[in-house]
Amino acid sequence: MAKNTMGTKLPRKLEQKMALMGEQIKLARLRRNLSIAQVAERATCSPLTVNRIEKGSPTVSVGIYARVLYALQLDDDLLLIAKEDTLGRNLQDLSLKHRQRASKKS
Predict the structure, then answer these.
(1) Phi, psi torsion values for 14, nearest 5 degrees
(2) Helix 47-54 vs helix 12-31: crossing angle, to nearest 10
(3) Which residues, at least 6 apart from 65, have a Cβ–Cβ distance to it below 8 Å?
């Protein structure tokens, strides 16, 4: 039976963002003067996996991304994901029901 590859192809815009994120992780590693092997050892994964992360591969699990960021001491950056949800907040505000006050009795 053929391996199911459904879901591994991303929209072009998302592929570009994954590639950019991989490049940023690679630059962070190089600024720390660490080899791929050193990061892989610290993140308890293979050097091939770190290489795939740096290329923006969509098949690497988010847990591995988190471990690599932790190895680079960038794990706090995970807290920035979806932090500023402007669209969601606007939609939430639109769905809030406006309560009307009862008229004052004279």
Answers:
(1) -70, -35
(2) 120
(3) 53
Cα 1 from chain centroid? 32
- 47's CB contacts (< 8 A; 6+ apart) are 36, 37, 40
Q: Which of 27-36, 81-90, 91-100 has the lowest mean pLDDT?
A: 91-100
Distance CA 31, CA 3 (A): 38
Question: For the whole model, what pTM was predicted?
Answer: 0.78
Please determine, for residue 80, whether its predicted confidence score (pLDDT) is greater than 70. yes
Instruction: State the Cα–Cα distance between residues 81 and 66, nearest whole angstrom.
Output: 12
Average pLDDT over residues 37-66: 96
Rounded Cα distance, 13 and 16, in Å: 5
pLDDT value at residue 96: 77
H-assigned helices in the chain: 12-31, 36-42, 47-54, 62-71, 86-95
The dihedral through the CA atoms of 1, 56, 81, 29 has a sign that is positive
In the numeric block, the tokens 């929209």 are attached to 11
